[in-house]
Amino acid sequence: MVKAIVFPNPSKDAVNVTFESNENRHIKIEIYSITGVLIQTLLDDEIISFRNCTTIFNKNGELASGLYLCKISFGEQYIVKRIILSE
Questions:
Q1: Residue 32: what pLDDT?
Q2: FRET pair for 84, CA 20 to 30 Å: which of 38, 40, 53, 70?
Q3: Phi, psi (degrees; rounded to nearest 5) at 33
Q4: Would you list the DSSP string of 28-80?
Q5: Contact at 8 Å (CB) between 15 and 56?
Q6: Model's pTM, two decimal places?
Q7: Which domains does the chain have, with CATH numbers?
């Protein structure tokens, strides 16, 4: 099982994507625009069983305000979280 939290949300700049798993898995974290365009791949790697891992999206505040989608894929399953960037 994989659990994911995106915070702070909404945010003016950096957003933390924190997830945990109790199994070894291939994890892929992708950020998409609301129109479905891939903006960035944050992680694409095999992860050994762990309790907590964090990656940062929009660290330097370079993306425009708006709604983004964070897709966290693990095996055949995935979670989608909405991210709101505000001015």
A1: 97
A2: 53
A3: -75, 165
A4: EEEEEETTS-EEEEEEEEEE-SEEEEEEEESTT--SPSEEEEEEEEETTEEEE
A5: yes
A6: 0.88
A7: 2-85 (2.60.40.3080)
